[in-house]
C-alpha cells in the first residue's frame, strides 16, 4: 500500500472536469486508488463519489494506492495531480 497527500490548487477545487479526468486516469491504472478527505473516502474511479467529497481549493486529500504496480501507480497519480488539480 502506498499513500501520499496532495493540496488542491485548482481555484474551484475538484469539480466535474478534473474529477472526470481523475476517474479516467485511475481506471487506466493496474491498482485500486482511494481518495480520502477527513472522514469521507471514495474510489477514484467513481466520478460522482469523488465530486461528493466536496474538495475545495487549499484542502488536502490523501491518495491510497493498493494492488498491482503500486509504485508506478502512485507516481502516475502524483503527476496527474500536479498537472490537473
Describe this structure in words.
By secondary structure, this protein is α+β, with helices and mostly antiparallel strands. The chain has helices at 16-27, 47-52, 70-84, and strands spanning 2-7, 32-37, 40-43, 60-66. A 4-stranded antiparallel beta sheet has the order 1-4-2-3. Strand 2 (32-37) and strand 3 (40-43) form a beta hairpin.
Alpha-carbon Rg, integer:
11 Å
Strand order of the largest sheet: 1-4-2-3
* Principal-axis shape: globular
Helix content: 25-40%
**Uncertain stretches of 5 or more adjacent residues:** none
Instruction: Output mean pLDDT.
Output: 94
Secondary structure tally, helices: 3
Element-level helix/strand string: EHEEHEH
Strand content range: 25-35%
**Number of DSSP E strands:** 4
Q: Strand pairing plus helix content: what structural class? A: alpha+beta
End-to-end C-alpha gap:
23 Å
In this structure, how is the largest beta sheet organized? Answer: 4 strands, antiparallel
Amino acid at each position: 500500500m502506498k499513500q501520499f497527500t496532495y493540496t488542491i490548487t485548482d481555484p474551484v477545487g475538484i469539480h466535474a472536469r478534473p474529477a472526470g479526468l481523475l476517474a479516467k486516469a485511475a481506471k487506466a491504472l493496474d491498482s485500486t486508488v482511494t481518495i480520502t478527505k477527513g472522514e469521507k473516502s471514495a474510489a477514484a474511479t467513481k466520478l460522482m463519489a469523488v465530486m461528493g467529497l466536496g474538495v475545495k481549493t487549499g484542502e488536502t486529500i490523501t491518495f491510497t494506492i493498493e494492488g498491482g504496480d503500486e509504485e508506478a501507480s502512485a507516481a502516475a497519480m502524483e503527476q496527474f495531480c500536479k498537472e490537473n488539480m
